[in-house]
Amino acid sequence: MVFFHLPKTGGLWIAEAIEAAGVSTHRPDPLGDQPYSSHGHADLQEVDVGERFSVAFVRHPLEWWRSYWGHRMRTGWRTDHGVDVAAASDDFNEFITRAIAHRPGYLGEMVESFVGSPRPKVDFVGRFEHLVDDACLALRLGGEPFSEPALRAQPRCNASDREGFPALYRRDVARRLAEAEHRTIERFYAYNPIPAHLLADQPVRGHAPPARSLERHTLTTVRGRLQRAEEHVRSLELALERSRRSEAHSEAALERARVERDRAMKDLASLQNSRLVRRSRAVRVAYYRARAR
Asked: Which of 195, 33, 40, 202 shows the shortest CA–CA distance to 128?
């Protein structure tokens, strides 16, 4: 398998969890010319997948930008990163407004470099929102033996500090960001373009939401399940096709080995019956050595 770690999509947890689950891993050297080089975020242009099963995860753009801001508030803004230089702000909505003005669709471009466009070039695209379940499914589809209880027991890591740095969107800012990142949203989150729980003006706790809101929530949930199910079917079909190709290659290699064995046996039989073998000690020694092999 090959796992492409799109930043801020739970990749550090995945790396630790699959190792804890008994999967042998190899991490490439960090790419020194990339902003996230300390984690070695190589994309589709930098890794030759070959016949291996490939996996990547995505995250809802509005959640991704919240995580980005929260991380920077904990670790500090970078002077060598274009988004940070143009958009740094202690006010979350001000940061998002500046980021949109500086580079609309920034995340969408990154997503496409990791999963491909317009259709995914990786075999399985998981969701950060279903990180544990999708990680288990990806390992099964890739044919990797692993301990599911150990993977599910792995604690979270590198999580945002929501209490210290709360980040909720004003409605107008959320709409502008959803429009700027529309390609990613339409592709992976069309059923829920602006999650209600990310908006600042939420209903007061204890007040039941209107029936229409409940219907909309139910419809959104069902559409999300349908989209994920369709993608899982596609991933399974790809895994089965790869398995069939691998079986065909093995059968062809086995047939070539049988042909080579038959030729060797004929050559040995011919050599055994020749007068030269009976008369020459050196040839007899060579014959018996070849037969022993």
From this structure: 195
